[in-house]
Design the sequence.
């Protein structure tokens, strides 16, 4: 080619070389969470679950306002009608719009579950941290308490509590939280025990870090993984339990709606108006499904043993 | 080991005592009376009847009395079912519930192990995905929805099995199926994770290197090692089955304990509520205990005497 | 690797198929051999068959069919002779002398007058803890004995000889014969009761029977079975050989069992009404029960009769019964349900001649404004409706809330409670409006009207009217039953004019009954069902 002939040495310039850089043989730098995110993303199921959750959460917010009906307004001219006009899911036995009620109920159910999860967090995590971190006699006593509580059938406690309290959003969440934090405490304690013997903790301690700094700055971030996974599984359990409670007549009060209450109402109409069971049950199952997918995905992503 | 068992038993007793105390006081805090016809009975008569039952005494006195009777093995008499002891009622309800529970554990475990193993061995393929979807569905669909659908479609529409009631083996199939979904889901998921881990272990490579056939190595090494940790999920499963049985028994009209429990709460039959609570708790505590012991026995890596996580 | 796993999978499939396959064979069902068999469901098993102590509808039904009192209710709910052959009533209508027929217990022993005396006094004995002892209070000295103020010997029931029973009443009442059909009035065999003690009537072989059937089997919480009683005095009338009752709580399951032909008679849930509407197997059972709104007159707003009446008129009862409760209930415009009888087989409602309250939102609005002017109230306060938390009741309450809001602009807060909690709040007067129901104890309007006398323990709303009190008081001791019923009609009119309550509906229950089941009677009082005359025809 012609151009090659015109090449002169002054067109070239030596490349700048850094010995240090040449020594480095690392792939792109990844933080722990970055790696988790990468692996989570590559898990199709988890991604689908995450998107599903997002959609459901958004629908729980805007769904009830998408048509002109409220979750409680009754219209006796349209009782038990299958989807028509802007009643996209049809109407129930009191002529209430099922679309609005379903999304409203989904919101309530999620709220109950989140509240219950918050109880898990606020009781279980500190309990487990303290027990695991301090060890020794403190741990011994705290573990004995857990051991005693673990044998209590949570179902019985929840039912009895709800008979005593009036079933409302807060009461149901409280009843579930009171029994639910134990699992969380056990998980956190286990993690703490593991972390305690790690070198970096020792290093931090040698450098004179205070206990609270140690706990909050160094150890808590490292138990976040298992905590998130536990939450991911305890939320659907709470939603499930709420539905179960509604089924045995301990759900929240009318005209409030939760998925459990809606399923209980739809259940009775199954043979004639199966759609009244179908929609809320489908949403409930989707929520459970999504949380489980996300939970599974997160667990795989967070578990170094399953790293490919 | 002996000392460990003794210690555990002491804790079990304490747990039971906490439950009994908690339930006792909570129950008496509940508004309402165990009388059935409160609206129409003259008030003096109500008081007289409550006195006959000993319900007029201060709570602590009733509590001590209850514990005393319990120590002698008596759970008292039902308020609702006239002249029937709580122990009798429990014994009447237990067989059906136990049969359902055991059947669904066995059936569910078999299917679950199969599903989980296949999923792990064919990781990432459509087989794995299908198995995953099935097991997640088992978690996601409430047992009462499954039960209702089974009773209606299999029982009424297709007419293959009885829609409900209790009697022959056929009557147990649908309720067992409804309950075993949860078992399948739990076990399958657990087995899959464990299998994946085991398959990556060195001894699997060794087995392969020794020339063991794939089936043999999976059957003899992988599955067996994956099964051991699965024992630990049995505790939560027992709880799950108890919960499920409350609604499933009602839906299929099974004369079991779950249904009895719900009913006793609705009519405030104090002694029966106490009885069932104690029974459930004891069942749960003993299962957890047995599982721990069993776990120590089958997994040589775990020394029970020093059992701490 | 595949092979072995495929084999395992195949095996599993086969196993599960086998599981399903053996379900194909059904249990053999009786009935084809010309045997008369009836299959039923109940929501629970009878909690106690000791007739002195029992309190619930299932037990009452069982007792009505395995036992018999002096009288029993027939098809038209009129008392017909049972153990009694005849009765002699004194002039002052306070002494009844019953002649017993030659009837036997299921173990062959004769039924004696002493069995009645023993049973009634046992129920009244405070030690028995009978919750229904008050049903015997019309008998002289009964209340005193039951509340430990009198002696057993002073109770006005006495066996003059084996076949003659003398009963003395406190006051003349027109409904005493019907009352003797109630379970608490059944005879009891002292020897059997004492032999079994606390365990009496807890198993079929721990009791004896004198009714059309005997209890032959009782699998607790599962099912129980009746067989025809060969020692029953009127056994030629009894056609059924066997009745099987399964305990089923779940409404869907009941419907499944009915549609697969496993049961012949079962209650029809409100959610299934649409499916069976207009079919010949729907059977409507009218109860003597009224549901109404109780106003608390201690509330300034609700103390005004016009306002109360406005609220009452604002509710569209027809929509409530036809579209919401859908159980055949009838919109109520008065207090006493049509099932309650007056004299000579006429219904009290026919005698009264009218319903007092009609749905009229316009008139209601007008009344509300007038009432508020009268009472000097400028702004409508927010009201609270106390109610039940069962799912059916919840729907009704939601409907009422919407109606008052729509028609009168009154904002109502719902307060659904468990039965006991509600009762407690009511008796403490801690409510504004209460959604309440009352079922008749006996076949007479007094069972309803008695509730609203000044100072009465059931007068929760403290409504008070002197004229009303006078009428009720007079009627309680009036031996002239014609005048008495006229006074009661007047009393009801007063109650309605002042709108002490807003009647909602007379409750009914719907059942599904296969068309081949004939003459199975239901009663609005006491026991729900009579199988004595029932039979299967053309199955």
Sequence:
């Amino acid at each position: 080619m012609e151009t090659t002939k015109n090449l002169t040495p002054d067109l070239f310039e030596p490349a700048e070389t850094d010995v240090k850089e040449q020594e480095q043989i690392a792939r792109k730098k990844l933080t722990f969470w970055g790696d988790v995110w990468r692996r989570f993303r590559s898990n199709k199921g988890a991604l689908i679950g995450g998107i599903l959750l997002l959609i459901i959460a958004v629908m729980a917010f805007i769904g009830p306002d998408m048509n002109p009906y409220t979750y409680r307004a009754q219209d006796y001219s349209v009782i038990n009608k299958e989807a028509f006009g802007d009643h996209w899911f049809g109407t129930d036995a009191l002529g209430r719009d099922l679309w609005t009620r379903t999304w409203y109920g989904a919101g309530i159910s999620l709220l109950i579950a989140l509240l219950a999860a918050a109880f898990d967090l606020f009781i279980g995590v500190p309990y487990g941290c303290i027990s695991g971190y301090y060890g020794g006699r403190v741990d011994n006593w705290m573990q004995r308490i857990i051991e005693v509580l673990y044998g209590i059938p949570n179902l019985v406690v929840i039912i009895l509590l709800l008979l005593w309290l009036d079933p409302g959003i807060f009461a149901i969440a409280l009843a579930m939280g009171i029994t639910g934090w134990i699992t969380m405490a056990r998980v956190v304690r286990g993690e703490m025990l593991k972390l305690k013997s790690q070198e970096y903790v020792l290093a931090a301690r040698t450098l004179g870090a205070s206990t609270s700094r140690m706990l909050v700055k160094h150890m808590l971030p490292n138990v976040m993984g298992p905590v998130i996974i536990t939450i991911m599984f305890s939320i659907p359990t709470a939603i499930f339990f709420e539905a179960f409670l509604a089924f045995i007549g301990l759900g929240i009060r009318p005209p409030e709606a939760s998925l459990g209450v809606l399923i209980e109402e739809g259940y009775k109409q199954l043979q004639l108006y199966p759609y009244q069971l179908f929609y809320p049950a489908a949403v409930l199952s989707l929520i459970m499904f999504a949380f489980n997918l996300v939970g599974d995905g997160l667990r795989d992503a967070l578990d170094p043993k399953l790293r490919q | 080991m002996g000392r460990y068992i003794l210690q555990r038993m002491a804790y079990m007793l304490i747990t039971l005592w906490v439950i009994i105390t908690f339930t006792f006081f909570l129950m008496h805090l509940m508004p309402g009376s165990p009388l059935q016809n409160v609206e129409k009975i003259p008030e003096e008569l109500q008081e007289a009847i409550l006195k006959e039952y000993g319900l007029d005494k201060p709570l602590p006195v009733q509590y001590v009395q209850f514990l005393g009777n319990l120590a002698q093995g008596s759970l008292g008499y039902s308020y609702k079912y006239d002249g029937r002891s709580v122990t009798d009622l429990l014994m009447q309800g237990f067989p059906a519930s136990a049969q359902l529970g055991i059947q669904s554990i066995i059936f569910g475990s078999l299917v679950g192990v199969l599903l989980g193993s296949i999923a792990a061995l064919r990781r990432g393929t459509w087989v794995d995905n299908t198995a995953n979807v099935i097991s997640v569905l088992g978690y996601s669909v409430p047992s009462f929805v499954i039960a209702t659908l089974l009773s209606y479609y299999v029982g009424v529409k297709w007419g293959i099995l009885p829609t409900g009631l209790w009697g022959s083996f056929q009557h147990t199939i649908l309720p067992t199926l409804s309950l075993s979904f949860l078992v399948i889901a739990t076990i399958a998921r657990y087995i899959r994770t464990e299998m994946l881990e085991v398959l990556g272990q060195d001894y699997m490579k060794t087995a392969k290197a020794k020339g063991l056939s794939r089936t043999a190595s999976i059957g003899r090494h992988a599955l067996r090692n994956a099964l051991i940790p699965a024992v630990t999920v049995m505790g939560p499963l027992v709880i799950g089955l108890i919960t499920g049985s409350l609604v499933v028994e009602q839906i299929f009209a099974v004369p079991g304990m779950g249904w009895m429990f719900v009913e006793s709460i609705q009519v405030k039959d104090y002694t029966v509520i106490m009885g069932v609570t104690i029974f459930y708790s004891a069942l749960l505590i003993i299962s957890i205990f047995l599982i721990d012991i069993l776990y120590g026995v089958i997994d040589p890596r775990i020394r029970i005497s020093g059992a701490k996580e | 690797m595949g092979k072995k796993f495929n084999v395992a999978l195949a095996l599993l499939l086969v196993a599960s198929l086998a599981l399903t396959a053996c379900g194909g064979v059904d249990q053999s069902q009786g009935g084809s051999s010309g045997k008369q068999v009836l299959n039923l469901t109940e929501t629970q098993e009878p909690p106690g068959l000791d007739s002195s102590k029992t309190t619930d509808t299932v037990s009452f039904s069982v007792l009505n069919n395995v036992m018999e009192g002096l009288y029993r209710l027939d098809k038209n709910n009129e008392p017909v002779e049972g153990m009694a052959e005849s009765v002699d009533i004194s002039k002052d209508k306070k002494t009844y002398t019953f002649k017993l027929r030659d009837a036997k217990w299921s173990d062959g022993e004769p039924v004696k007058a002493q069995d009645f005396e023993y049973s009634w006094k046992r129920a009244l004995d405070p030690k028995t803890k009978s919750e229904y002892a008050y049903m015997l209070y019309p008998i002289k000295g009964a209340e005193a004995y039951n509340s430990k103020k009198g002696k057993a010997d002073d109770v006005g029931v006495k066996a003059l000889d084996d076949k003659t029973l003398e009963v003395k009443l406190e006051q003349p009442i027109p409904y005493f014969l019907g009352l003797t059909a109630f379970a608490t009035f059944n005879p009891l065999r002292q020897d059997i009761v004492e032999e079994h003690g606390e365990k009496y009537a807890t198993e079929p072989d721990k009791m004896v029977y004198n009714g059309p059937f005997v209890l032959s089997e009782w699998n607790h919480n599962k099912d129980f079975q009746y067989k025809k009683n060969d020692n029953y005095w009127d056994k030629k009338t009894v056609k059924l050989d066997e009745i099987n009752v399964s305990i089923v709580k779940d409404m869907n399951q009941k419907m499944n069992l009915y549609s697969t032909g496993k049961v012949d008679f079962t209650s029809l849930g409100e959610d299934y009404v649409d499916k069976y509407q207009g079919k010949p197997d729907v059977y409507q059972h009218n109860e003597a029960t009224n549901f109404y709104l109780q106003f608390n007159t201690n509330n300034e707003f609700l103390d005004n009769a016009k306002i109360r009446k406005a609220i009452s008129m604002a509710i569209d009862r027809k929509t409530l019964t036809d579209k919401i409760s859908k159980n055949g209930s009838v919109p109520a415009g008065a207090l006493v349900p049509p099932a309650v009888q007056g004299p000579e087989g006429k219904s009290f409602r026919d005698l009264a001649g009218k319903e007092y309250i009609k749905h009229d939102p316009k008139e209601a609005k007008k009344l509300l404004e007038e009432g508020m002017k009268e009472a000097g109230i400028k702004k409508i306060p927010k009201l609270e409706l106390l109610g039940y938390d069962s799912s059916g009741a919840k729907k009704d309450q939601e409907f009422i809330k919407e109606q008052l809001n729509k028609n009168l602009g009154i904002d109502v807060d719902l307060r659904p409670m468990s039965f006991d909690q509600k009762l407690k709040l009511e008796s403490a007067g801690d409510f504004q409006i209460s959604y309440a129901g009352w079922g008749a104890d006996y076949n007479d309007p007094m069972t309803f009207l008695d509730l609203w006398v000044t100072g009465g323990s059931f007068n929760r709303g403290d409504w008070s009217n002197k004229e009303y009190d006078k009428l009720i008081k007079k009627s309680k001791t009036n031996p002239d039953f014609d005048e008495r019923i006229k006074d009661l009609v007047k009393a009801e009119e007063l109650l309605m004019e002042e709108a002490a309550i807003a009647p909602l509906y007379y409750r009914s229950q719907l059942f599904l009954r296969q068309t081949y089941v004939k003459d199975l009677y239901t009663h609005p009082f006491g026991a729900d069902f009579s199988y004595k005359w029932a039979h299967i025809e053309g199955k």
Remarks:
- The radius of gyration of chain C is 26 Å.
- The longest helix of chain C spans residues 2-21.
- The longest strand of chain C covers residues 282-295.
- Confidence is low (pLDDT under 50) at residues 1-32 of chain C.
